[in-house]
Amino acid sequence: MKKVLVLLAAAALLASPAFGAVRNSKHDLSSSSTATIKSTNIDEVCVFCHTPHSGATGLLAPLWNRSIPGGSIAAADLYNSATLDQTNSNPSTVVGAVNNSDAPLCMSCHDGASLTDPLLNPPASAGNVQPAGLSNVTGNANVFGDTLRNDHPIGMDYGAVQAADTAGFNAETTANVDVGGLPLYTANGVMWCSTCHDVHGQGGGDPFLNMSNAGSALCTTCHIK
Description:
By secondary structure, the chain is mainly α. The protein contains 6 helices and 2 strands, in the order ααααββαα. It has helices spanning 2-14, 91-99, 103-110, 158-164, 193-196, 217-222; strands at residues 178-179, 182-183. The protein has a two-stranded antiparallel sheet. The protein is globular and about 55 Å long. It starts with a helix and ends with a helix.
């Protein structure tokens, strides 16, 4: 049942009305894109992430057209800070939640090493084809590397976190569904990358946020400051 719920949540991402905003955004890697980083030999927008046939198997992903790099995300790969604490009573639960979230999909490009990997099912079914013209981006804020240690925590049950610190976090608007309009995933209301980020863009907006962060509005949807 949990896998079905995750698949439905992933499919809901594809149904976003902002889907058309991908074109010419930084997530448009097609050769006709106006983005700086793009392919020179493939002129399709969706194919760099999705395929209608022969997608990756064994993944909780929407017809994914990329290989997931490396192995599973481990406890040592999760958020870690000397000054900001992640309250979590069961790290193994978070590890499982992260691996079953959208994080591995995001890292199949944003790990700084996999952007140039061959597509599983490129246009014209030509077998594994490496997009030409792309280069892996390293050393900037859009690259996670192979861990999430210095990135905002994900994989936690937001309701449980809020219940443990009611002075620090706003309550869910709808239990296990959203907080202030930001979506939570699975039956347990877990925070994913796409709680804050809309991968299909908002008119080419960067960094693909689900809402404006003017005045830290996105941050204070969850955090009481």
